[in-house]
UniProtKB/TrEMBL annotation:
Keyword check for Signal: yes
Keyword set, alphabetical order: Signal
Protein name, per record: Uncharacterized protein
Signal sequence extent: 1-24
Record organism: Bryocella elongata
Length: 694
């Protein structure tokens, strides 16, 4: 991001250049935002710009594509990007202005395959108001390779599309403000090359393992799915918030998906309170001033509607009542919520079967993300029969199969094409594509924790006091006790303590949380480094404190090597050397095992209170969130008041876009939460926790 004062966010988009524009508005001169000579010709794009029901006239409309390191600019003729990261400089394809009815048009353009395209609108005026310098609206077009070449794409740019982009692409947006390079407001969307591929993957083993992720692609698809702002089949866009996620062609990847449309409409009215004015600043009594005051986060004070929308998405529990009151004075977008929500956390929920894979989700408990960024989860069918279900980032199922088991929150995948799933005192090695059982690996007691290293070795613990850590290779047929260079078998914990969950840090050290009813041990750390080769560790250590006598539900590590373990009522902090530091009580209690995003924020299920709890490891603060569901039983209609998405969720996982996945066995749903997370490496076996894909 090139602004020293603006908040750092990104929107991934790609498009190329326009060769002709309406109303005599020409393409500007080449700048750092870049213009170029067209190459392969693409179709045109146009649409309308409205602030609620009012057309915005004389607004500047700009078409952009992302500008990613390593992606050719042959179609646009642009130079190669010197570097790219979150919110880095985008490439300006064309510019025009809206007419008196809010219409705009760009007749032709080119874009570069591998990049993403989006359109921004800034300034302009509605009705008798003067020009509004605080109006910044944005809409996604999507992947360049998916854009039509024979029909013009129609796009409605509105408060709704801006919210969709804020919730899904906020991590990728850099709001530069007034840019000398182009003479107006510049909104950049960008991503590192390693988080801008169509399908994520990992290759190599050990220190040679490398991964790439599809965070930008996923975020763009999610933005398109939330609001029907553009269709690629020539149909006129409606501009409404969707109740069911759709792709760019208006198709529903999974018809059981549910989006709380009235929540989005309510927030769109909140933004409209600023858009349909002459502007303002935080602290004044204008519509914009009230919006910016309500969406200020510490020293981050919004100065435009996009920044305000991103702040709402990032902190959905902040100033809920004030924002709801602002929305109540505006009625352009309907239907709206009839009762104030507990917060503005946005989530889409999926209930199960689609046209290709008929399995309902059942009582889903386990959840894991694959190197490609897809979801694998389990769902109880009947008795000891479990359905393993593969789900794409858009909610569509890509596979399913039946295995045996008593349920496992410690479902794990490796990079050798396997899923591991517990079945009492055995481990099932399952083909990750067909979900057929390849082998059963016997253990001495019921397995509990799972983790995979960069060599595709599986590690597990069992709930037996003093039992060692076990491992098995990707082709092995039996588990073996794990030791150090000086000890052949190292027990987990001491006395009555036993292993519960496992987690690798970025130094290939393995942490286990402790099932510990009477001994003051929280975590055990098996360290790795020079002089030892996995699955043999260099040494091991345990943490202790008189305040710790409980069951530790899970442990994760941050990029600095610190470990963070959860009990039902607190988060405990350990140094990278496994020395207990302090604990942070969580009064409501009933926390489960956490996941971690790319900024070091813990995502913790609180099944006892039907909440998703975030824990900021930098500030030591909790935020309890209850995403809104408007789903009604057995019909396509939606309720006007929020019910809780969660009833008893078990696990979370953070995607490369920053979306947080979770499963709920009571509701029998798969949930995708937008806005609150930061991009993370989806595949835990890469062992880069608490780091953004770079």
């Amino acid at each position: 991001m090139r602004s020293s004062s603006s908040r750092f966010f990104v929107l991934a988009t790609t498009l190329s250049l326009f060769t002709s524009l309406v109303t005599g508005c020409g393409i500007g001169t080449g700048t750092s935002a870049g213009m170029a000579t067209p190459a392969a010709r693409r179709s045109g794009v146009g649409g309308k710009l409205h602030g609620g029901p009012n057309p915005i006239q004389n607004a500047s409309v700009n078409l952009w594509e992302t500008w990613t390191t390593g992606i050719s600019g042959a179609a646009t003729g642009r130079s190669a990007a010197a570097s790219s990261t979150y919110g880095s400089t985008a490439y300006q394809l064309a510019t025009t202005t809206t007419d008196s009815t809010g219409r705009w048009n760009i007749a032709n353009f080119n874009c570069d395959p591998g990049e993403y395209v989006y359109v921004t609108a800034t300034g302009g005026k509605t009705a008798s108001n003067s020009a509004n310098p605080n109006e910044v609206l944005i809409a996604p077009l999507g992947a360049c390779a998916a854009l039509p070449t024979s029909t013009a794409t129609q796009v409605d740019i509105s408060e709704l599309t801006t919210l969709a982009m804020a919730y899904t692409l906020g991590n990728f947006i850099g709001d530069v403000g007034a840019s000398p390079a182009i003479g107006e407001q510049e909104i950049d969307i960008g991503a590192p090359a390693k988080n801008n591929v169509a399908t994520g993957s990992c290759s190599g083993t050990g220190s040679s393992m490398t991964c790439v992720a599809n965070g930008l692609d996923e975020a763009f698809a999610d933005a398109i799915s939330l609001v029907n702002a553009t269709t690629y089949n020539g149909a006129k866009p409606t501009g409404n918030a969707n109740t069911v996620p759709t792709d760019a062609n208006g198709n529903m990847p999974n018809a059981t998906g549910s989006i709380p449309a009235a929540l989005l409409n309510t927030l769109a009215n909140t933004l409209q309170s600023c858009v349909n004015t002459s502007g303002g600043i935080a602290g004044d009594t204008s519509g914009c001033g009230k919006l910016f005051t309500a969406t200020t986060l510490g020293s981050n004070i919004p100065t435009d509607t996009l920044e305000a929308a991103i702040n709402i998405a990032k902190a959905p529990a902040s100033n809920v009542h004030t924002l709801y009151t602002i929305a109540s004075t505006v009625g352009a977008f309907t239907p709206t919520l009839t009762v104030e929500p507990s917060d503005y956390t946005l989530a889409v929920t999926y209930k199960g079967s689609d046209a290709t894979h008929p399995y309902s989700f059942g009582m889903v408990i386990g959840l894991a993300l694959t190197p490609s960024g897809t979801v694998i989860m389990d769902g109880f069918a009947t008795g000891l029969t479990v359905n393993l279900i593969g789900v794409n980032p858009d909610g569509s199922q890509w596979g399913s199969g039946t295995v045996n088991g008593i349920g496992g929150v410690h479902l794990v995948v490796d990079n050798a094409g396997h899923v591991y799933y517990p079945n009492g005192s055995s481990i099932q090695r399952i083909d990750a594509s067909s979900f057929s059982v390849l082998s059963n690996i016997t253990t001495s007691a019921s397995v509990q924790g799972f983790a995979v290293d960069r060599f595709n070795n599986l590690y597990t613990s069992i709930i037996t006091a003093g039992a060692p850590l076990y491992s098995v290779s990707a082709t092995g047929t039996s588990v073996a006790a794990v030791g150090t260079t000086t000890t052949s078998s190292v027990p987990i914990g001491t006395g009555t303590a036993a292993g519960y969950s496992l987690f690798f840090d970025s130094s290939e050290g393995l942490w286990t949380s402790i099932y510990n009813p009477s001994t003051a041990i929280a975590t055990q750390n098996f360290t790795s480094g020079a002089g030892c080769t996995l699955p043999v560790f260099c040494s091991t250590s345990t943490s202790s404190s008189p305040t710790i006598q409980t069951v530790f539900n899970g442990v994760v590590t941050t990029a600095d090597g610190k470990a963070w373990a959860t009990t039902s009522g607190a988060v405990y902090e350990m140094t990278s050397n496994n020395v207990y530091v302090t604990n942070f009580p969580y009064a409501p209690g009933l926390l489960s095992g956490p996941s971690i995003d790319g900024a070091g924020t813990l995502m913790i299920p609180d099944g006892g209170h039907s909440a998703l709890v975030t824990f900021n490891t930098s500030t030591g603060t909790f935020t309890s969130l209850t995403p809104c569901s408007l789903r009604t039983a057995g019909s396509g209609s939606q309720n006007p008041t929020c019910s809780n998405v969660f009833a008893n969720e078990y696990m979370t996982a953070v995607s490369a876009s920053g979306a947080v996945w979770s499963v709920d066995d009571f509701q029998q749903t798969l949930v995708k939460v937008f806005g609150i997370g930061t991009p993370a490496w989806p595949y835990l076996g890469y062992n880069h926790p608490g780091e953004m894909p770079q």
